[in-house]
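TOPIC: backbone geometry
CONTENTS: sequence, C-alpha cells:
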Amino acid sequence: MRITLCAVGRMRKGPEQALVDDYLARLARTGRSVGLGPADIVEVDERRGDAGARLARALPDGARLCVLDERGRALTSRDFAALLAGWRDGGAGRAAFAIGGADGHDDGLVERADSVLSLGPMVWPHMLARVMLAEQLYRAAAILAGTPYHRD
C-alpha cells in the first residue's frame, strides 16, 4: 500500500526534513516485506488562498484517508499498525495522511476521512507533526515485520 503525506506548508531543509527523510527511507526498506510504502509527500502552500481546498484536491484518488487533528482518536503504535494492516488487507492500494495548517482542517475533509487521528492533546507545528507521523509509519512497518524496533 503506497502512502502519501499531504501537508499544508512547505518544509525547509533542516533537522526536521532530515528526520522525515530518514524515517520514510526506513519505511521504504522495512515496509516492502509487509506491503507498506513507499511514501511520498505532497505539499500545499499555505500562503496562497484556500489551502484546505487545495489539500483536498492533492489527495490521491481512491486512497484511504486519515486526517491528523487534535480532536481525533489517540492510538497506540500497535493499534496504528493494525489500522494500516486492516486497510492493506482490505485491498486499499493507497493511504493518504492529511496534515493541516495553523487553522486545522476543513470540516468537509474531516467528515470524509476514514480515520481521524490525534498525535496527542497538544497542538504540534506541521513540521514536527510530519516527523512524528513519518516515525509512526516506520514503527508500524517495523511492528508488522516483527523487528525489535518497537518495545512495549
Remarks:
- The two ends are 25 Å apart (CA to CA).
